[in-house]
Amino acid sequence: MDDALAFSALVLALSGQLVQEIHSRVSQQGFADLRPAHGFAFARITAGATTTAHLADHLGVSKQAAAQLVEELVRKGYVVRRPHPGDARARLLELTERGWAATRAADRAARAAVAPWREALGDARFGALVADLTRLRPSGPIRPAW
User: What InterPro entries does the record tag this protein with (predicted)?
Assistant: First the structure.
């Protein structure tokens, strides 16, 4: 296999493994009712001033699909809708304390999930890998692979 194909396969495999590992660890911390896609939504909501339309754009889904996801997160107690100060038709989305707790759990899970990688490579090589991947990262949101 040439380097380009090997790189593609490795990045895709590591990405999938990382998402599943984080999800598993978040579930074990008391958030078993969340799916990986919820974490991508939380990432946009924590940025602030987020509406369902913004979330749809961030996730690359229809407004209807984003509205269903938001309704699910509201029903589960992770998100609340607040009046938008500049648009009476829109609602701003905010995480509840439970939503912030899930976000903190995901941060812990992400650190734990990559700890074996850091250990295998050592701090210097791991730091260099992060720096290299930072240079390669795409612009725009990190989206789930629907």
Answer: HTH_MarR-typ (IPR000835), MarR/SlyA-like (IPR039422), WH-like_DNA-bd_sf (IPR036388), WH_DNA-bd_sf (IPR036390)
